[in-house]
Amino acid sequence: MPRFFVATPLYPDDVVALPDDVVRHVLVLRLQPGDSITLFNGEGGEYSAELVEVERRSARVKIREFRAIEVEPPYRLTLAQGIAGGDKMDWLIEKAVELGASGFVPLSTARSVVRLAGERAQRRQQHWQGVVRASCEQCGRNRLPEVMPVQEIGAWLDALPRESAPGELRLLLSPRASIGFSALPDAPPQGGVTVLIGPEGGLSADEEAAAVERGFTAVGVGPRILRTETAGIAVLAALAARWGGW
Predict the structure, then answer these.
(1) Taking the CA of residue 220 as centre, how many other CA atoms within 13 Å lie in the half-sphere pointing to its CB?
(2) Which residue from 42, 50, 30, 49 is spatially nearest to 72, judged by alpha carbons?
(3) Same structural domain, 236 and 115
(4) What range does the domain containing 46 cover?
(5) Which residue has the higher pLDDT, 183 or 80?
(6) Is the dihedral of CA 107, 154, 111, 121 positive or negative?
(7) C-alpha to C-alpha distance for 49 and 51, rounded to whole angstroms
(8) Is residue 72 in a domain?
(9) Which of 24, 137, 147, 154 has its CA 20 to 30 A from that of 209?
(10) Minimal CA–CA distance to 135: which of 90, 98, 104?
(11) What are the tens digits of pLDDT across the range 197-210?
(12) In the predicted structure, residue 33 carries a pLDDT above the cut 90
């Protein structure tokens, strides 16, 4: 059944007009009055609905019932990712949403291939939020992870408390780390986890040192060097298996 995100309150028995972008999807899918769809607004749960009108530029649905369906993992994970070049960032965010990431922090670092600032950075943030939305529609999540504005890694680290809060876990992926995943706790942290990953070329030694000063623990993911777009997906999958996120 097609699933669509709508940024509006939803109530059973209401008849609502769909936003323009959802109307375009309805037309592409050739949906007709009487067809069933699923709507969600990011506040948790989802709503069954029936199309009651489909025109060339508009569509309306009648909300049927609310379903308290949640597929979130039993932990909150923020992926702080050095911006990757090309379409790697889109692919990474899409897959990270499927694997349960709760939020994203795009970071400019010393070795970043892509430099974003001003309006260009804002446009990319909006684009990545659209990737999140489409991924949630596809994978069945009813809560949208947030993509934060692009930030310089130094400023982002400086804004963090020097020490992690009780129950919080901060992880830094580094090929130079001596600690492996086997050393991580068996249960998910109650205060959430932040995973910091560098771009192509990784983080510089100074950036890693600054992260460690802010309470990050450097961990390795094995003897092989992973590409930046592979590392995040591998870590999220490994943590899901360890902490019951599947």
Answers:
(1) 10
(2) 42
(3) yes
(4) 3-67
(5) 80
(6) positive
(7) 7
(8) no
(9) 147
(10) 98
(11) 999 989 999 999 99
(12) yes
Shared domain for 109 and 63, answered yes or no, is no
Evaluate whether 219 touches 174 at the Cβ level (below 8 Å).
yes
Residues 63, 81 within the same domain: no
Residue 49 contacts residue 63 (beta carbons within 8 Å): yes
Q: Both 220 and 144 in a single domain?
A: yes
Q: How far apart are the first and last CA of the chain?
A: 22
Relative to beta strand 46-54, strand 77-82 is unpaired
Look at residues 221, 199, 96, 215 and name the one whose alpha carbon lies nearest to residue 153: 199
Distances (CA, A) of 134 to 6, 40, 105, 142, 195: 12, 12, 18, 11, 23
What pLDDT is recorded for position 205?
94
**210 torsion bin: left (phi>0), alpha (psi -120 to 50), beta (else):** alpha
The DSSP-derived string for 167-198 is T-EEEEE-TT--B-GGGS-SS--TT-EEEEE-
Q: Clarify whether residues 34 and 132 are in a common domain.
A: no
Cα(47)–Cα(14) distance, integer angstroms: 11
Tokens 């979130």: give the residue: 72
Where does 11-102 have alpha helices with state H? 20-28, 88-98
Amino acid at 154: G
What span, in angstroms and rounded, lies between the C-alpha atoms of 20 and 199?
36
Number of domains into which the chain is organized: 2
Question: Which residue do the tokens 């930046």 mark?
Answer: 228
**Does 113 lie in the same domain as 222?**
yes
Regarding whether 124 and 39 lie in a shared domain, the answer is no
Question: What values do phi and psi take at 36, rounded to 5?
Answer: -95, 140
Give the CATH number for residue 98: 3.40.1280.10
Of 208, 216, 173, 195, the C-alpha closest to 75 is 195
Specify the residue for token string 């400023």: 155
